[in-house]
Amino acid sequence: MIRRRKILKTGNVLVKSTAQMEGIRESGKINTYILDYVQERICAGVSTGEIDRWVSEQTALAGAVPAPLNYEGFPKSVCTSRNHAVCHGIPSDGEILKEGDIINVDVSTIYKGFFSDSSRMFCIGEVSADKKRLVQAAREAVQVGLLEVKPWKPIGDMGHAVYMYARSRGYSVVEEIGGHGVGLQFHEEPWVSYVAQKGSGEIMVPGMVFTIEPMINMGGPEVYVDDKNGWTVYTEDGMPSAQWEVTVAVTQNGYEVLAR
Ligand code: MF3
Ligand code: CO
Measured from the CB, is residue 157 less than 6 Å from ligand 1? Predict the structure, then answer.
């Protein structure tokens, strides 16, 4: 999510109850299933509009609702962000995937009022070695972050680890857009940065649920928002960007991935 000034809204609960956690877990299972469904079918020749229909239909069949649809006016059920699109790409029938593309498919589900959020990258056919390496590094960055998720540590330690890993691979990290608490609403406290200082931010406590979703750029970290649709974020330099996202819960001794 894009960082906003007004962050705390009433009703935000940082620590989820056992029953709430179970609800988010169920939502996350559907979210993961939908990405599995996309993964089995996505290929060259498919349009992003078609991906939106898959997500819309499968979500409905699961008795759930796609969280992006009508969220602050977002027009579709899923975000599809290709090549130099960083995030919040709007699916369309005119956008046809072709060999060599990399694309992020970002799925978010509401089930019985509980929200989950995860995304994956897909390589379409044969992809250049440098794009493949970027996609792999973005995936590993999430893994590095997960290993830092432990109770009683500041969340900035996680963000810092993600940042250092991406930099060590020669990539930059988008600063303006980050992760977020999730579960009872789409976007809750805390704001989760991946350009964070060690020791900064909220203390992670058991029952907290948030996303790890760093946006990793092959070139510079600068981004801009498409002024025609008001949503899609692109890299300023036109170089590719990659992002994987999980919904994670802090447990008594570490973490549990609720959606991937
Ligand atoms: N799924 C995105 C996230 O990770 C949110 C997209 S908002 C939308 O936070 F409206 F574009 F769907
Ligand atoms: Co998210």
Answer: no
- pLDDT at position 235: 99
Q: Which ligand is nearest to the CA of 87?
A: 1
Provide the pLDDT confidence category of residue 4 given band limits of 50, 70 and 90. low
Interval between CA 5 and ligand 2 midpoint (Å): 18
CA 192 – ligand 2 centroid, Å: 10
How far is ligand 2, taken at its centre, from the CA of residue 43, in Å?
24
Class of domain 3-259: alpha beta
Q: pTM of whole model > 0.90?
A: yes
Both structure tokens of 252: 């008594």
The pLDDT tens digits for 146-166 are 999 999 999 999 999 999 999
Q: Where are the beta strands (DSSP E) in the chain?
A: 65-66, 79-82, 85-87, 102-111, 114-123, 172-173, 179-181, 188-192, 209-212, 215-217, 223-225, 233-235, 241-243, 246-250, 255-259
Domain ranges of the chain: 3-259
Report whether residue 245 contacts ligand 1, using a CB cutoff of 6 Å. yes
85 has pLDDT over 90: yes
